[in-house]
């Protein structure tokens, strides 16, 4: 979550006075803060009602499908899931916690849903409305009963808010400017309560879309979610990234003040920067430098460190004038298994050579194939390779060809029903999510570069 420089003009308030906090929250003129719904029964009713609506539509569509031609049945199924996508957004978007997070994760993995449905769910990526700062005091007091003596100042207006917590600017007693990331009170309990209900919903959705074991996929999503609510785990992740990139001048990872970090509160140095929206008016040269740097950092994470910052939300980056990029939010970090790295290198090499025929067997080595062992059809791979061929052919400008999005959606729709029984290792879920997010962010930056050269240098496909 990005502490942008625009917050420098925000008013500060003494965190001791609840009345002052409420007044300032209302007077800012920003989005009105929303109280967090933490009642277990209320959330159960919300998710249960959503499951009932989805279940009824699935049963109705399946019954009607007995009397339809295949093509018409597919169209009806797509319309049904688009309607269910809106239902999911309406319900999970209000709930924060695991409910909203699972919806976000579904939207960022294109292979799990038809592209039109994934596009609907992508609206869950938008920043969640903040809760009043007064509601966060319980969390601060839980971790640090003396927090009023640790901080001389805390801004009550949130810098950023998300599904699990929100960020506020503050100042330590010694005058250092910091940001504090505070979990919503009781959100860890809420998430654990949500998970069992969401698992049922996830399996119900998955059983209508795939023949593969959805329990394995759910286990991966649940593991990442539980890691995200453990701020001590995030402290370890961020410290690890600082060590790995200590000699890299292109990336800034804010320093954490461990003495002011707890199970539900993180305190780090204030590193302001410009958002993706802010940099759209910059010169081509500046945007290209940021784009190349962002691609390089992720290639380095995958192939050198095998440790991935796996939350590509645009708010988790800030862009500095010297071309550096600050990374925030290390709650979701994915260790890449060794068996996948050679496969990714071979995929890059095959794409650079436009060799679609080799890719099905490469995917099999990565445990991606049909349930009966058949490799993925070359025809499907050739379609995607043709769409993305310009990225692997010298200089390419992301965001310059909006038809790519349409072509990917058309191709995904064409082969969605053919992918019912394609199985894959659950580790790929968050790797694919990150790569997809990276490409989307490069398109927002409108960055131009010889990406194939970057892949050759940092992906080392020649070794295979």
Total E-strand runs: 14
Helix fraction bin:
40-55%
Q: Cα-atom Rg, whole angstroms? A: 23 Å
Q: What value does the average pLDDT take?
A: 77
Q: Can you count the helices?
A: 17
The parts where pLDDT drops under 50 for at least 5 residues are 5-32, 36-45, 53-71, 108-112
The share of residues in extended strands comes to: 5-15%
The oligomeric state is single chain
The rounded distance between the terminal residues' Cα atoms is 38 Å
Summarize this structure briefly:
The chain has 464 residues and is an alpha+beta fold. It folds into three domains: 40-128 and 188-228, no CATH class; 129-185 and 230-272, Phosphorylase Kinase, domain 1, CATH 3.30.200; 274-464, no CATH class.
Structure description:
The chain has 464 residues and is of the alpha+beta class. It folds into three domains: 40-128 and 188-228, no CATH class; 129-185 and 230-272, Phosphorylase Kinase, domain 1 (2-Layer Sandwich), CATH 3.30.200; 274-464, no CATH class. It contains 17 helices and 14 strands. A hairpin with a 5-residue loop joins strand 8 and strand 9. The radius of gyration is 23 Å and the shape is globular.
